[in-house]
Amino acid sequence: MLIGIPRETLPGETRVAATPETVKKLAQAGHQVQLERGAGLSARYRDGDYEQAGAVLVDAAQALGSELVLKVRRPNTAELAHMKTGSVLLGMLDPFDADGLHTLAQAGLTAFALEAAPRTTRAQSLDVLSSQANLAGYKAVLLATQYYGRIFPMMMTAAGTLKAARVVVLGAGVAGLQAIATARRLGAVVEASDVRPAAREQVESLGGKFIDVPYETDEEREIAQGVGGYARPMPAAWMTRQAALVAERCKQADIVISTALIPGRPAPVLIQPETVAAMKPGSVIVDLAVERGGNCPLSVLDQVVEHDGVTLVGLSNLPALLATDASALYARNLLDFLKLVIDAEGRFALPADDDIITACLVCQDGKVLRSA
Q1: Could you tell me if residue 242 is left (phi over 0), alpha (psi between -120 and 50 degrees) or otherwise beta?
Q2: Distance in angstroms (rounded) separating the CA atoms of residues 50 and 32
Q3: Is 46 an active-site residue?
């Protein structure tokens, strides 16, 4: 196949959908790879390295005009103008954006949104959400160290003892668990909250303390199990009890890393303005849910702001701050997905019955196949 890798045009997006490593494997498999000049520079991958791996350097129009296009973010209107009807698109396409999916369908693309892949063992190697969230959780803690005016570990000196930082992590998914692990490695005391009871064991295995909100009804316990590895909206009564407990923990914390998201819905509000006002001066909140409205209403998208002496970090694309590694993982995710849609002769072929393909295929033949 003729495979194109264009440069990402979304402001602040430094990742690239292929690395010299994955280009080499595609070329060895007999595919022709067209890479837009400079596509990997923001991720510290040189054009020359891509050429050595087997790619041909082209302009944006040629890369986008390929049979199969690999992207990080959904193409904009200008990019879609260069894409051919019937071509195949792989990327993070926001499957919950109905208007965006309609635009892709109108362009006549066969499009796969990889973030819609099921949370199953078979899909682990192509799970873009997990690979990128893992890095986001790590970077969130490093950002907290940057804006926090004190150190994380306890330190005993001749001038006295410095106490360890207290970190609260809200949401113990992939990003949250990595944040716990990173904060613990830096010497912080860590607590974490999650609606899913299964998260307790994971939190404690990393050295964190689980903030337990008891379930009062069987309905609450059932909903808390989640679906397909994702959280579900909890009943109002449970959310009220959780909010009160989380507020108390946040008031005592030095750092809050907030990662709670529910697919296709606005981020749940977990940190109220009055909680921020009661936090210690110099405390830091890193809100990883800011792109979906934020777990704190005071967070501002792609800005770092201060309220009542508390710094709120609202940067939305933390993997892009680790572009080299983020691109490497993402490119491998795409490579593994391609194994499902390219047959032994190297041609595009959709399997008749594959749960991963069914979940990720968002549009084909001018129709939107997913209800956003």
Answers
A1: alpha
A2: 12
A3: no
pLDDT in tens, 253-279: 999 999 998 888 899 899 999 999 999
| Residue listed under structure tokens 């390219």 | 342
Could you write out the DSSP letters of every residue in 191-215? EEE-S-TTHHHHHHHTTPEE-----
Helix (H, G, I), strand (E, B) or coil at 336: helix
28, 52, 124, 252: the catalytic one is 124
Structure tokens at 281: 């001066």
Distance CA(277)–CA(271), nearest Å, equals: 10
pLDDT digits (tens, 9 = 90+) for 325-337: 999 999 999 999 9
Active-site annotation holds for 119: yes
Looking at the DSSP assignment, which residues form a beta bridge with residue 191? Answer: 168, 209
Active site residue 124: yes
Which one from 130, 132, 327, 364 is the annotated catalytic residue?
130
Rounded Cα distance, 41 and 39, in Å: 6
Q: What are residue 156's DSSP bridge partners?
A: 161
Candidates 94, 127, 194, 254; catalytic one: 127
Q: What pTM, to 2 d.p., does this model score?
A: 0.92
Catalytic residue check, 230: yes
For residues 100 and 363, is the Cβ–Cβ distance under 8 A? no
CA pair distance 371, 369, nearest whole angstrom: 7
**Among 37, 230, 232, 272, the one annotated catalytic:** 230
- 191, 216 contact by CB (below 8 A): no
Please name which of 146, 136, 137 lies closest in space to residue 321, comparing C-alpha atoms.
Answer: 136
